[in-house]
Amino acid sequence: MPYTLTVSPDFTPDHLSGWYIFNTWLQKTTGEAIHLEIFNSFLAQHEAIQDDEIDLIFANPFDAAMLVREKGFLPLVMAQGRSDEAVIAVSSDSPIIDVTELLPGCRVAVTEDPDVRLMGMIMLEPADLATDNVQTHVCDSYVLVAKQLLRGDADVGIFLAEAYDGLSNIIKKQLKMLVRSQIDVIHHALMVGPRLVDRRDELRNTLLAMNNDEKGQDILKNLRFDAWNSVEDADMEFMIDLMDTLNT
Amino acid sequence: MIYDMKPEQVIGDYKEVRLDLFGGISRVCLYTEIETPYPDGKLIVSTTDNSGVITHVNKSFVEMSGYTEDELLNAPHSILRHPDMPPAAFKDLWDTISAGKKWQGYVKNLRKDGGYYWVKATVIPNVRNGVVVGYTSVRRKPSRSKVEACIKLYPTLF
After folding, report:
1. Among A23, A205, A247, B10, which is 20 to 30 Å from A76 by CA?
2. How many angstroms separate the Cα of A130 from the Cα of each of A191, A248, B147?
3. A-chain residue closest to B135, CA distance
């Protein structure tokens, strides 16, 4: 029975081809059959995790606690220099120039991405805003978050910083960034589940050496980073503690 | 280690008070009325051991406190204790986290230069294999209305 790799659904479709190429490389390198399963929503992915269908996951930090504490996953690696950051933006036509000018009852456009939503809501707290006093508009993608702002259907949007940066220049010119987080220590991690955990060291060493040859470098380029960095158990516990402190 | 504050480190007119801190420590604090606004989008992160001695700080902690990383590591977290903070707040913090629970509150912190900054602080116990091995504290930008409420409330708690 093949192992199953999955990627947190917060990645845009243009990232996914890189993950298919990565999975082909991983199968060749490890000699194992690994199926890449892409889920359309966090809900569908969580159901698969609960049913013990996942063996390797590039996990959202929000899910890390559940994966480690309830499902016996352990961390392998993280993308070098790639922390998860959030952006708060409004339409360029908006009179708002500071987060603290936003009022309770305002319409907040978000995606289902849980860690970005959490970081974004923390950045709205200085305006006394919380999930119970704003109208949340959940969108399927960050482009749709931007469109809500441009159409005037939402007053403020919460973006994954990388997704905001990747918006077309035409869209970005019609938006105004109010805050960009500089948290630095929250990141996705590739994690290994119980069925593969006895090969953890081998997998980690293979991934850490990936940038030593041209082929590996090309595959990493498609994933949009230069190398993997090791994530030790203590690093993961620290991030889980951090997410715990923020999730209040 | 924690030392008495020195006038040459302080910027602006200051008042002087001796504070009794957690763990039987006493410290001369010099404090001014100069506020450093909390920067947007940043988190101050630190960890301590079980007795509140700092074991890890991030860059934002160093920037906002005015201390160097070397000065903060191995110092008690009460190096940030501002005289305007009522002791009852810290008793509540220690009672809560010692019981294995999460604590949250609004805190006025003292900078090395005698100034201050307000934070919304969350502290959680770090549990490893069922044992508390230390605490993680994360501070974020507070809402001004909550700070204003604390400015009125805290003097009544002494």
Report:
1. A247
2. 31, 11, 16
3. A241
